[in-house]
Amino acid sequence: MRALRILLIIAVILGALFTAVDRVAVHLAEGEAADRLRASEGLASTPDVDINGFPFLTQVLGGSLDEVQVGISDYEAGAGEDGKTIRIADLRADLKGVEFSGDFGSAVADSATGTATIAYDELLRTAKAEPTQVAPGITAEVVALSDGGNGKIKVALETTVLGTKLPEPVPVLGSVTVVDGNTVRVRADALPVLGGVEIAESKVRQITDFEQRIDGLPGGISLEKVQAAEDGVEVTVTGKGVRLAG
């Protein structure tokens, strides 16, 4: 009986030691993976990397991690031509089946899903934010974007008629969608009347409708869907064979 108690005590101690070593190992691995990701993506700050699943050491021996969560606070993505960029806030990705090399010099996830936010002021930079003539004596420009409710985006048009600016911007509700996995498109649901004048649809849509291409997201993930929310456009991202490093 005494021997059995001693064996149980030893088993508990060894289990505690293994758990402690396992947690230290995963912490070190998360730091190394974060540094590798920062370097490979050219990030301004070190991302958050959480390796889930226990025990970690047995996953390492198998060369594959069940689940890795990555968080990047601010990511400068490409915005089409001319080297322009657009800031993606709070990019969070949940990666499944991550195959990696021993030094984390390369890591590829079987699949990835995640979310991100594009602030309205960032998206506004791509709209027709300059006075544009839509009819003789009438100009309009986009001055603000905001949440229109029910997943819609509200476009505020400042209108000038014969040199006189209307007292309040004209609100226009629009739908926001993803095109080709890399472009956010905003399109007015219904055309506004500006200055009491019916204006050709093509002229109005030059102002109300616009697109923003987003290139070079980490690991080759792409846009899946978008919708307007309180703080900006919420984006769902997805990917297969997502390369984190190497």
UniProtKB/TrEMBL annotation:
Entries under Pfam families matching the protein:
LmeA
Origin, by domain of life? Answer: Bacteria
Q: What is this protein called?
A: Secreted protein
Which InterPro entries does the UniProt record give?
DUF2993 (IPR021373)
The protein's organism comes out as: Streptomyces gancidicus BKS 13-15
